[in-house]
Amino acid sequence: MGVDSWRARIVCDHQVHHGEPCIRGTRIAVSIIVASIADLTLDDLLRQYTQLKREDVQAALYFASEAAHGNLVA
Q1: Which residue in 44, 39, 53, 51 sits closest to 6, CA to CA?
Q2: What is the pLDDT of residues 42-56, one digit of tens each?
Q3: What is each CA distance from 4 to 11, 38, 48, 50, in whole angstroms?
Q4: What is residue 3's predicted lDDT score, i.e. its pLDDT?
Q5: Is residue 24 within 8 Å of residue 11, measured between CB atoms?
Q6: Rounded to two decimals, what is the model's pTM?
Q7: Domain span including residue 43
Q8: Considering only Cβ atoms within 10 Å of each terminal Cβ, which end of the chain, N or C, has fewer?
Q9: The pLDDT value given to residue 2
Q10: Is residue 17 in a domain?
Q11: Coarse DSSP helix, strand, coil percentages of the chain, rounded to the nearest 5 percent
Q12: Domain tally for the chain?
């Protein structure tokens, strides 16, 4: 996944999950993925959320990293 290609996978839409950043085409919030990866392996997470792809999890982690560094522009 390219440095900026993750951005296409994350959407903030007030009609979906109260505008929380989610994986495009799902209602799965980035925060849920980041919190889950602390306790689950990647394979377990993908089994639990079957609509996710490995690249979606990577995108969520890139997003969280950018947010932690204050680099996100809404």
Answers
A1: 53
A2: 999 999 999 999 999
A3: 14, 24, 27, 24
A4: 59
A5: yes
A6: 0.84
A7: 5-68
A8: C
A9: 59
A10: yes
A11: 50, 5, 40
A12: 1
Q: Which residue has the tokens 């639990």?
A: 48
Tokens at residue 60, please? 């969520």
- The three-state secondary structure class of 22 is strand
- Tell me the DSSP string of 38-71: TTS-HHHHHHHSTT--HHHHHHHHHHHHHHHTT-
Helix (H, G, I), strand (E, B) or coil at 18: helix
Q: How confident is the model at residue 1 (pLDDT cuts 50, 70, 90)?
A: low
Please list, residue by residue across 21-57, b when 16 or more beta carbons sit within 10 angstroms of its beta carbon and e when fewer do. Answer: bbbeeeebbbbbbbebbeeeeeeebbeebeebeeebb
- What CATH number does residue 64 fall under? 1.10.10.10
**Is the Cβ–Cβ distance between 32 and 20 less than 8 Å?**
no
**CB of 58 within 8 A of CB of 1?**
yes
Q: Is residue 12 part of a domain?
A: yes
